[in-house]
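Margin note from the TA: students keep mixing up input and output lines. Inputs are the sequences; the output is the structure of the whole complex. Example:
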Amino acid sequence: MKICIINGPNLQLLGKRETAIYGKSSLNDLKNTLIEKSKTHNKNINLDFFQSNHEGEIVDKLAEIFNKKYDGIIINPAAFTHTSVAVYDALKAVDIPAVEVHLSNIHNREEFRKRSLTAGACKGQICGFGVKGYELALEALLEII
Ligand code: DQA
């Protein structure tokens, strides 16, 4: 089973960036946590991690996912959540179950963060639980797939 984890802009700075909001775990910590979590399931789960600060690269990655026949997507589009019709369209196009994750609770922050364009192309959204949200997303995907 192949699952792709996509992280958007500025998430390479996780653990250093606004730690009061996003926590102290790095992107690498997140990766290791998810790998460990995947091993607790006897399902031969293959995780592919991708991070980009560029909208087009995320769209390209989603197209690649389509071609390589992944089973599920966990995506934190970061700032593109609130702006990107292109990422929304790409998620719709691939038509593979996706779960949107946000480390912070986007609903109790600035007004502009409350609207997610991309969540409408996902099975659901998990936000406000930090790195744990990615683990919950993996659980949700395994239920769906
Ligand atoms: C974020 C929330 C977004 O509003 C923000 O632009 C991010 C991170 C989160 O994980 O909480 O970069 O997606």
